[in-house]
Amino acid sequence: MKFIPDATQGPSITGYGPDWVEVNGEKHHSSIIVSSQGICRPWACTRFEDLTEELFQELAALAPELVLFGSGSKIRFPHPKWISPLYSARIGIETMDTQAACRTYNFLSGEGRKVVAALMV
């Protein structure tokens, strides 16, 4: 699916497929972090089973209002211990499949919200 990005300061998700996410026209075939504050970088998590508390601490350090966790092709909820750094920092987290997280990120970013999408591809 292709998107037409809203006017936003940060990167926009411009497309996605079963094994890729496109940010500002550049395809990524591995997990990434996208932030409305201007960040688009790899996320060191290739499989759901590789998730750790440290990976979510990395997201908390970005200090967003909300983290959108795209868990891949199906919804899989992270263990509460893994997301404790977000809870401790009073940062919200929403879990959804990666394609839904892409759509939601663009919507919230377009509203000017401080949002981070952690997308497993």
UniProtKB/TrEMBL annotation:
CDD domains: Xcc1710_like. SUPFAM superfamilies: MTH938-like (SSF64076). InterPro entries: MTH938-like_sf, NDUFAF3/AAMDC. It holds the Pfam family DUF498. PANTHER family: NADH DEHYDROGENASE [UBIQUINONE] 1 ALPHA SUBCOMPLEX ASSEMBLY FACTOR 3, NUCLEAR PROTEIN E3-3. This is Mth938-like domain-containing protein. It comes from Rhodoferax potami.
